[in-house]
Write a structure and sequence with these properties.
Elements: E1 3-9, H1 14-30, E2 35-38, H2 42-54, E3 63-65, E4 76-79, E5 90-93, E6 107-112, H3 116-131, E7 140-142
Parallel strand pairs: 1-6, 1-7, 2-4, 2-5, 3-4, 5-6
């Protein structure tokens, strides 16, 4: 049963949400975890791919897009299709919906900000996890 955490960023700036995701990935990867970032669509996956290369001069996060290439040693994979990278133990969900494969992860992370639509969809996902029999932990507030 996965541990589910919601992060609530006290900002409406989308770039700060994406920057937080990069810092979160950096921290989790350095702890030895394999991470799958599930995005809404290909454009968002490609944007995060680029951002992970450039968000910080002092770090390098080996990553690639999933499912291509099929044979990859990268500990961080970014995808948008309804398919989970089975080697990952951490799922960061940036999709508007709860992915059908979320229970395969040991840990599920949801990153929200103060944008009305992002928060509303986050509340829906919170309810969906509960209705599926999972209990998300108390949201972690970041900022302000």
């Amino acid at each position: 049963m996965p541990r589910i955490n919601f992060y609530l960023l006290r900002t409406t700036h989308r770039q700060q949400r994406e920057g937080f995701v990069c810092r979160l990935v950096d921290k989790i990867w350095l702890q030895g975890h394999k991470i799958y970032i599930h995005t809404q669509h290909q454009a968002q996956a490609m944007m995060l791919d680029k951002l992970l290369w450039t968000f910080q001069d002092s770090s390098f996060i080996p990553h690639d897009l999933y499912p291509e290439p099929n044979i990859s040693l990268a500990p961080v994979r970014i995808g948008f299709q309804n398919e989970y990278w089975k080697e990952a133990d951490v799922l960061i969900n940036l999709n508007d919906n709860v992915p059908g494969f979320f229970a395969q992860a040991d840990r599920v992370l949801e990153v929200l900000n103060e944008e009305a639509q992002v928060k509303a969809l986050g509340r829906e996902r919170y309810r969906a996890y509960r209705e599926a029999g999972f209990t998300p932990e108390k949201p972690i507030e970041i900022g302000r």
